[in-house]
Write a structure and sequence with these properties.
Layout lengths: L8 H9 L14 H4 L31 E8 L16 H13 L2 E6 L5 E8 H15 L3 E6 L5 H5 L4 H10 L2 E3 L9 E6 L1 H18 L3 E6 L5 H5 L4 H10 L2 E3 L9 E6 L1 H18 L3 E6 L5 H5 L4 H10 L2 E3 L9 E6 L1 H12 L3 E4 L6 E4 L2 H21 L1 E6 L5 H5 L4 H10 L1 E4 L9 E6 L1 H19 L1 E7 L5 H5 L4 H9 L4 E3 L9 E7 H20 L2 E6 L5 H5 L4 H10 L2 E3 L9 E6 L1 H19 L1 E7 L5 H5 L4 H9 L4 E3 L9 E7 H19 L3 E6 L5 H5 L4 H10 L2 E3 L10 E6 L1 H19 L2 E6 L5 H18 L4 E3 L9 E6 L1 H19 L1 E7 L5 H5 L4 H10 L2 E3 L24 E2 L16 E7 H13 L2 E7 L5 H5 L4 H10 L2 E3 L9 E7 H28 L1 E6 L5 H5 L4 H10 L2 E3 ...
Helix pairs in contact: 3-4, 4-6, 12-13, 16-17, 28-29, 33-34, 36-37, 39-40
C-alpha cells in the first residue's frame, strides 16, 4: 500500500455498501495546488502600537458631601401626639414617613425620659429646611399670634414674587398670613410653635423697622441683660413703649442677637434709648453666682413655656440663665442684686419634682426635705387607696388581633372601657407583645377580660376569602330577586357573602366567617361557577323592540317560563336602549331551544315576514332622503319595520322590508306610492317651527301628526338631533296634499305662537329654589313644556306673584309641575352633616361629580361651607403666653363649647327628611379613612412586585391607596387609605396576599428537600435515556429536580434529587428500580467482521436502532483506532442477548457472502501531481509524526525547518 493513499468519497461509499467498483486508472491526477489551494497570508500587525491613554487614570477631584444633619427637639407639652397607649396609633409614624416622601430628607425619632421628642433630620440643606417646617407644623402643637405693622410695609414682608415670605416661613417654620390688599387690617397672623412665633415676629418687626421712615435706633446690649430690659412677662418693655410711644423690638431668647431696635418719632426714640441705657447702666455691675443643677432638672427650673423663669424674675428681680438644651453644661447662672440672689436661689431649688419611671414600679421625688415629706405622704395615701379598691389582670392575645379588639377609631375598646369602668392598655405594634393589661374595679376587670378573650377567640376562628368570579356570572349566581344566593346563604348560614357593586367592574366575591364553613362555601361556589362556564355558550336574537314586552310577559311570566324550561339565562336590553338584541346564555342545545321559543312568540304575536319590493335604483336616493329622513319616517310610522336598500351604484332594484306582516304591507304601499309620486308629481314644501313646539305638534304617541297625515295624505318629516336646521319641517306628497297639510300645520303653529300670560302665587321663601344655579329649574321647565317663560319678582320685592308666558297648554302643564315642586319644598327640612374640612375636596370628587350624583340621586340640595386655610381659623383664637404689647395683639379667648363642630366642617343639606338622611349616609360613606396592616418587612418587596406592578394592581382592584414604608425604616406597617366600604376588602386582600406569599415561602422550603443516591457511573447513560427521555419522564412524573455529577466532581457515583420529601423518595425508588434492572443484565462480546459494521449500523444508525428496539439490548461498536476493530459488545437480559448475537452473526454471514470472500486490490488512492515533496528536496510528510500532523490544542515546538505544507502559523 502506498503511504499517501487515501479513500475517496466514492470508494468509501462502495466500502459501506460492500461493492467494489472498477478502477479508472487512466485518469490524469490533479495538481497539488488545485487540490489543496494555499490559505491567504495573515496581514502583519503594525508594530509599536501604544495602548490608549486610560481616561480613568486621571485624577478625579473629590466632591464635598452636600448632606447635612440637624437635630430638632419637641417638648412633651408641645407634642401633638401624646397618647402613650397609642390607640389608633401610627399617626406620628405615618406623618414622619409622609414628610420623608414629600421632602426627600431622612428622619430618625427618639424619645427622652420626659417623653419629649428628638428628631434627627439628614439630607440636603433645602430638604432639611422643608422637613423642619413640616415637623413643626405636623408634630408640634400650633399656637398663633398677631403682629401689627403699617399696611405699606406688608409688601416688604412678602418680597418679590413672595420669595421673602417663603424664606421667612421656611426659616422660622411658621405659617404667616398677610391680609389681602383690599383688607384694611394691618395685623399679620403667625401660627406655629412658640419658638417659631418669636423668631417670625422679630423678623417681621425688623423688616418693618427698616422700612419705617421715622427714626430708627439700634442699641447693642449684651444678651444676658435683655431680661432686665424686657422685665418679667415683657411688662417693663411694654410700659416703656406705652410711656415713650416708641416701638422697642428686643430679640427673643431663642434668637442669638444683641441688637435692640427702637423706632418711632425722634424724641420718642431718644427717650426710649435713654431709659434702656439707664437700666443697662444700673445692671451691668450686677453680681452673678453660678450653681450646678442636674441637666434633668433644667426643665423644671424653666417651667412650662418659661413661666418659672419669669416668676423668679418678677419676685426677685434676678435673671436666671439656663444653658441651651444641646449643651452638656449643668451650670446655671443667677444675675442680679446681691441681696436678692439668695432668695432667687431658694426659688430655683424650691420646687418638688415628681417623675414616673416608665417600665418600673417606682416614682422619683426631688425637692426640699420639708416639702418632700408632705408630697410623699400624699402620694402614699393615693397609692394605698388605689390598691385597696382596684385590681389588674394581664391577658395574652395574639398581636395580629389587637387592631380588631381596638376597633375602628377605637370603638370596641372604648365601649369596653366605658361599660366596665376599666383602663385597658394594648401594647403598640413595635413592642410585639401579647400581654394586654386591664386595670380597674375587680368585677369590671373580670368582665372586661372575659369579653376581650371571647372576641379574640372568635376572630381566631374567623377568616376572609376572596373568590375570583367573572362579573358576567354574578347575576346568575344571585338569581332572580336573589333566590339562588339565598339558597347558598341558607346552606351556609354562618358565612357572609358580599358581591361587588356592578358599577365597580370587579370580579372579587368576598366570603367571611368560620374557617371550615368558608372553605366549604368556597368549594360549593367554585363548582357553581364551573357549571356556568360549561354553560357559557351564548347567542344573540334580534327581536323587534316593540315586542320585547310580549316576550317578557305579564310580571315576567313568559320569559321566566322559557328560562326555567330551557335552563338558560336570557338578558334583554334596557328600555332606554336602541338595541333589539336579546342575549341567551347556557348550553348550546338549550340556547337554540330558547331561541326557537322566542322567535315563535314573536311570529305568533307579530306575524313577522320579509318582503322584497322592486323600485328603480335611480329613485333610491330620493326615497332615502337627506341623511335617511324619508325612509326613517316610514319605518317609524310603520311600527319600526326594517327597510334595507341595496348599496349605491350596484344597479340592483330590490328593496327588502322585514317586520310584522301588516306593517310590512303598509310600508310597501308607502314606498311604492312615494316612488310613484317621485316619478310623476312629487311636491315638497318646507315650513319652520320652534323646536320646543315639535313635541306638541307630534302629540302623545304621534296622535296629532297622524291625523294630519291621514286627512291630507301628505308625509310630514320632523328634524332629528343630527340635522343642522332644528326648526325645519318637511312636507312631501302631491301638490294638493302638501298644500292642505301645510295649512293645518301653520294653524297649529299659530295657536302655539298665540302666547298667553298667567299668574300664580309662590311663597317668597321658595323663590330661591327656582332661580338657584342660574335658573336651572326654570330652564328644565321651559325645555319640558314648550319654552314657557317663568318670571319671578326681583330680589327684595315683597311679592309672591309669579308670571308664566307661553302657549296656553304649555302654561297649564308648567303651572301644574311648579305646584308639585312647591309641595315638595313645603315638606323640606334642613339637616347638618359634620365632616372635617380636609375631606371635602375628596367627597366632591373630580369637578364635583360625586356630590352632583348624590344631589341628583336623592333630590336634595347640598351646601359646603367656605374653605378656611391654616390652623386657628374657624375656631377660638389661641392666647399666647399672656403676652400683650403694642405689637403683639392678644386674641381674647371666648368661651367656646369644645364639643361644638367648627363651622368649616358643617355641610348643610336641604330636602325631604328621608332623602336628607339617605344623602347624609351617602356623604359619610365617601369620607376616606386610613387603616394600617402589619405585614412582615421581608414580604414587602413581593407585595410591591416588579416595578410596582403588584401594588398597583391591588390599588386599582380595591380602589385604595396603599403606602409601603421605605426600606430603610425596616417597618412592618403598611397604610391603606380609601373609602370605608373599600378598606375592609383591601385589607383582606392584602392579608390574603400575605398568606399566599407565606405559603409560597413554606412551599419553597418543602421543595428544597434533598437526598442522594449512589449509582455506578456506567449506569448513568441508561438512567438518562436517549436524549434524556427517561430522566425527563421521572422528573415530570415526580415533580423533582435530578442532578447528575459533573465530569470534575469527586463523587462520580452520586445523583442528587431535590423536591418534596415524598416525591424525592418516589423518584429515588424509580431510579433504583432502573438500576436493579440494569444490574440483572449481562454483557457479552462477539467478533464481528469490521467490514460489515457500516452495513449493520445503517444510514444515520437506523439499522442498529432497529436491532436494539427489537431485541431490547444495547450494542457498542468499536471506536476508530481500537485495538480489536472486530469486537462488538452486546448488553441486555441473558435470553435477549443470545437472540441478538444470533441475529448479528447471521447478518455478518449474509453481508460477508456478498463480498464473495475476495480480497480487495490495492488502490491507488488519492494521487496528486507537483506535490512539494516531489518538486523539491522536501520529504513526504510523516503521518506518524505529531509535528507534521499535530493534534488540535496540542503544543508544538518551534522549529525553523521548512514544512511541505507551507509556512507554519502556530
Amino acid at each position: 500500500m502506498s503511504s499517501v493513499a487515501v479513500l475517496t468519497q466514492e470508494s468509501f461509499n462502495e466500502h459501506r455498501s460492500g461493492l467494489v467498483a472498477e478502477q479508472a486508472g487512466d485518469e490524469e491526477a490533479p495538481a497539488y495546488k488545485d487540490a489543496f489551494p494555499p490559505l491567504p497570508e495573515k496581514a502583519a500587525s503594525p508594530e509599536g502600537t501604544q495602548e490608549p491613554v486610560n481616561a480613568w487614570t486621571s485624577k478625579i477631584r473629590p466632591l464635598k458631601s452636600s448632606v447635612i444633619t440637624q437635630v430638632f427637639h419637641v417638648p412633651l407639652e408641645e407634642r401633638k401626639y401624646k397618647d402613650i397607649n397609642q390607640f389608633g396609633e401610627g399617626d406620628q409614624a405615618k406623618v414622619c414617613v409622609d414628610i420623608m416622601h414629600k421632602t426627600g430628607a431622612h428622619l430618625e425619632l427618639s424619645m427622652a425620659k420626659d417623653q419629649g421628642l428628638s428628631i434627627m433630620v439628614s439630607g440636603k440643606l433645602d430638604a432639611v429646611m422643608k422637613a423642619r417646617k413640616e415637623i413643626v407644623s405636623r408634630l408640634q402643637t400650633q399656637a398663633s399670634a398677631t403682629v401689627a405693622i403699617p399696611k405699606e410695609h406688608h409688601r416688604f414682608v412678602i418680597g418679590k414674587n413672595g420669595e421673602k415670605l417663603q424664606e421667612l416661613e421656611l426659616k422660622t417654620a411658621t405659617k404667616i398670613q398677610i391680609p389681602r390688599p383690599d383688607d384694611p387690617s394691618n395685623h399679620i397672623k403667625i401660627s406655629g410653635t412658640k419658638e417659631g412665633l418669636e423668631k417670625a415676629k422679630h423678623e417681621i418687626l425688623l423688616i418693618s423697622a427698616e422700612q419705617d421712615k421715622r427714626a430708627v435706633e439700634r442699641v447693642n446690649i449684651d444678651k444676658v441683660f435683655h431680661p432686665f430690659i424686657t422685665g418679667a412677662y415683657n411688662k417693663l418693655v411694654a410700659d416703656m413703649m406705652q410711656e415713650t410711644g416708641a416701638r422697642i423690638n428686643v430679640p427673643p431668647p431663642s434668637v442669638n442677637k444683641t441688637e435692640i431696635v427702637i423706632t418711632g418719632e425722634k424724641e420718642q426714640v431718644a427717650l426710649a434709648v435713654a431709659m434702656i441705657k439707664k437700666i443697662y447702666e444700673g445692671k451691668k455691675n450686677a453680681t452673678t453666682i453660678a450653681v450646678e443643677v442636674k441637666k434633668s432638672q433644667h426643665k423644671y427650673v424653666i417651667g412650662p413655656k418659661g413661666n418659672t423663669l419669669q416668676e423668679i424674675l418678677e419676685k426677685t428681680g434676678v435673671s436666671v440663665e439656663i444653658p441651651p438644651p444641646d449643651s452638656n453644661s449643668e451650670t446655671v447662672i443667677l444675675r442680679g442684686e446681691p441681696d436678692r440672689l439668695g432668695q432667687a436661689l431658694t426659688e430655683v431649688y424650691a420646687k418638688v419634682h415628681i417623675e414616673f419611671t416608665e417600665g418600673e414600679d417606682k416614682i422619683t421625688l426631688e425637692g426640699p426635705t420639708k416639702d418632700m415629706q408632705m408630697v410623699q405622704s400624699q402620694m402614699e395615701a393615693i397609692v394605698t387607696d388605689l390598691v385597696s379598691r382596684m385590681d389588674y389582670m394581664e391577658i395574652s392575645v395574639d398581636p395580629r388581633f389587637h387592631r380588631h379588639l381596638i376597633g375602628k377609631g377605637g370603638a370596641n375598646i372604648n365601649r369596653i372601657k366605658d361599660l366596665h369602668k376599666v383602663s385597658v392598655r394594648i401594647p403598640p405594634d413595635n413592642e410585639k407583645s401579647h400581654l394586654i393589661r386591664i386595670e380597674g374595679d375587680p368585677q369590671g376587670v373580670q368582665e372586661a377580660s372575659k369579653e376581650l378573650l371571647e372576641l379574640a377567640s372568635r376572630m381566631e376562628n374567623e377568616r376572609t376569602k376572596d373568590l375570583i368570579i367573572e362579573q358576567r356570572f354574578h347575576r346568575a349566581i344571585i338569581g332572580q330577586k336573589g333566590e339562588k344566593i339565598k339558597d347558598v346563604r341558607d346552606k351556609f348560614p354562618e358565612v357572609i357573602i358580599n358581591f361587588p357593586d356592578p358599577a365597580a367592574k370587579s370580579d372579587i366575591v368576598q366570603l367571611r366567617g368560620p374557617r371550615n364553613e368558608v372553605e366549604k362555601c368556597s368549594k360549593f361556589m367554585a363548582k357553581m361557577v364551573a357549571d356556568m362556564v360549561e354553560n357559557g355558550f351564548f347567542l344573540s336574537v334580534p327581536i323587534f323592540k316593540q315586542f320585547h314586552k310580549n316576550i317578557i310577559g305579564k310580571g315576567g311570566a313568559n320569559i321566566k317560563k322559557i328560562r326555567e324550561e330551557t335552563n338558560t339565562r336570557i338578558d334583554l336590553p334596557a328600555e332606554n336602549s336602541n338595541s333589539e338584541m336579546i342575549v341567551i346564555t347556557g348550553k348550546k342545545e338549550n340556547c337554540e331551544a330558547a331561541r326557537i321559543r322566542i322567535l315563535s312568540i314573536q311570529k305568533e304575536l307579530a306575524n313577522i315576514t320579509e318582503m322584497e319590493v322592486s323600485i328603480p335604483s335611480k329613485l333610491h336616493n330620493s326615497l332615502i332622503g337627506s341623511k335617511g329622513r324619508f325612509v326613517r319616517s316610514i319605518m317609524e310610522e310603520c311600527g319600526g319595520v326594517h327597510i334595507h336598500f341595496p348599496t349605491e351604484g350596484s344597479g340592483i332594484d330590490t328593496v327588502t322590508i322585514r317586520g310584522p306582516a301588516e306593517e310590512v304591507e303598509k310600508a310597501k304601499k308607502q314606498l311604492l306610492s312615494l316612488a310613484q309620486d317621485k316619478q310623476t308629481k312629487s311636491h315638497t314644501a318646507e315650513l319652520k317651527a320652534k323646536p320646543e313646539y315639535h313635541k306638541f305638534l307630534i302629540g302623545k304617541g304621534g296622535g296629532n301628526i297622524r291625523k294630519v297625515r291621514d286627512s291630507t295624505g301628505a308625509r310630514i318629516i320632523f328634524p332629528t338631533l343630527e340635522d343642522e336646521d332644528q326648526e325645519l319641517i318637511t312636507v312631501v306628497g302631491t301638490e294638493e296634499a302638501v298644500r292642505e297639510a301645510q295649512k293645518e300645520l301653520e294653524e297649529l303653529i299659530k295657536s302655539l305662537d298665540n302666547v298667553v300670560e298667567d299668574v300664580m302665587n309662590v311663597d317668597p321663601k321658595h323663590h330661591r329654589y327656582f332661580v338657584a344655579r342660574r335658573g336651572q329649574v326654570l330652564r328644565d321647565i321651559a325645555d319640558e313644556y314648550g319654552g314657557v317663560m317663568v318670571s319671578f319678582p326681583r330680589s327684595g320685592a315683597n311679592s309672591d306673584k309669579v308670571t308664566l308666558k307661553g302657549a296656553k297648554d304649555c302654561v297649564e302643564a308648567a303651572k301644574k309641575r311648579m305646584l308639585e315642586i312647591i309641595e315638595d319644598l313645603d315638606a323640606q327640612v334642613t339637616m347638618e352633616c359634620v365632616i372635617p374640612q380636609k375631606f371635602h375636596r375628596s367627597i366632591m370628587g373630580p369637578k364635583g361629580s360625586r356630590i352632583q350624583g348624590i344631589t341628583r340621586d336623592h333630590n336634595v340640595q347640598i351646601k359646603f361651607p367656605e374653605r378656611v386655610d391654616g390652623p386657628g381659623k374657624g375656631g377660638p383664637a389661641v392666647q399666647e403666653n399672656g403676652e400683650a404689647n403694642g405689637e403683639m395683639v392678644e386674641e381674647p379667648a371666648a368661651p367656646v363649647d369644645p364639643t361644638a363642630p367648627r363651622k368649616c366642617d358643617v355641610i348643610v343639606l336641604s330636602g325631604r327628611k328621608e332623602r336628607c338622611e339617605a344623602a347624609v349616609e351617602a356623604l359619610k360613606a365617601l369620607v376616606p379613612v386610613t387603616t394600617e396592616v402589619e405585614v412582615p418587612f421581608e414580604l414587602h418587596r413581593y407585595i410591591i412586585g416588579q416595578k410596582g406592578s403588584g401594588i398597583r394592581k391591588m390599588m386599582d382592584e380595591f380602589e385604595v391607596n396603599i403606602q409601603v414604608p421605605a426600606p430603610e425604616l425596616q417597618s412592618d406597617i403598611i397604610s391603606i387609605t380609601g373609602l370605608a366600604n373599600h378598606l375592609d376588602r383591601a385589607k383582606e386582600g392584602l392579608l390574603e396576599r400575605v398568606k399566599e406569599l407565606t405559603a409560597e415561602q413554606e412551599d419553597r422550603s418543602l421543595r428544597s428537600f434533598k437526598l442522594t443516591i449512589t449509582v455506578d457511573p456506567k449506569y448513568h447513560p441508561k438512567i438518562i435515556g436517549r436524549k434524556g427521555a427517561i430522566i425527563t419522564n421521572i422528573r415530570t412524573e415526580h415533580d423533582v429536580n435530578i442532578q447528575f455529577p459533573d465530569k470534575n466532581d469527586d463523587n462520580q457515583d452520586q445523583i442528587t434529587i431535590t423536591g418534596y420529601e415524598h416525591k424525592a423518595t418516589a423518584a429515588r425508588d424509580a431510579i433504583q428500580a432502573i438500576v436493579d434492572e440494569l444490574e440483572e443484565m449481562i454483557s457479552e462480546d462477539i467478533t464481528l467482521d469490521a467490514r460489515v459494521h457500516a452495513r449493520i449500523i445503517g444510514a444515520r444508525g437506523k439499522g442498529i436502532r432497529k436491532i436494539m428496539d427489537e431485541f431490547k439490548v444495547d450494542l457498542r461498536f468499536p471506536q476508530p483506532g481500537a485495538a480489536d476493530p472486530n469486537q462488538v459488545f452486546v448488553t441486555g437480559r441473558p435470553e435477549l442477548v443470545d437472540e441478538a448475537i444470533d441475529h448479528l452473526l447471521n447478518l455478518e454471514e449474509e453481508y460477508v457472502s456478498t463480498l464473495g470472500g475476495r480480497e480487495r486490490g490495492s488502490s491507488k488512492g488519492f494521487v496528486v501531481r507537483e506535490a512539494p515533496w516531489q518538486t523539491g528536496s522536501e520529504k513526504a510528510p510523516d503521518m506518524s509524526s505529531s509535528e507534521d500532523f499535530p493534534s488540535f490544542g496540542a503544543p508544538v515546538a518551534a522549529t525553523n525547518k521548512a514544512s511541505p505544507w507551507g509556512p507554519k502559523r502556530f
